[in-house]
Amino acid sequence: MSKLLMNLRNVPDDEADDVRAMLDAQRIAFYETRPSIWGISAGGIWVTEDAAFADARRAMDDYQQQRAARARAEYAAAKRAGTAETFITLLRADPVRVVLSVLGILFALGLVTLPFFLLRG
């Protein structure tokens, strides 16, 4: 029976491509399901053989550790170079999105704290 190795929700294309290449290199049989039209399911990468799932999981864990280390190194290099994304750079690049996000956060906090203020008195 097939087992889900990777849910493709919010997965960048390059990461999904890397995982497919890794499975091909390890000669692990897999198939992919596409996202649904209405966005109910995000799709996934499935390992077809139960016996190969443990090997696929180990390879996936190794890949994720390498990708995380690479991302941390890239971020550290960007911080040293002064090109890392900060709140100020986001605000300059897209002020409307930042302001709307902050207003949404404040609205959510207001909803969460509303019962406290209503039940206090």
UniProtKB/TrEMBL annotation:
Organismal lineage: Bacteria, Pseudomonadati, Pseudomonadota, Gammaproteobacteria, Lysobacterales
InterPro entries to which the protein is assigned, alphabetical: DUF6164
TM spans (from-to): 98-119
UniProt keyword list: Membrane, Transmembrane, Transmembrane helix
Name of the protein in its database record: Transmembrane protein
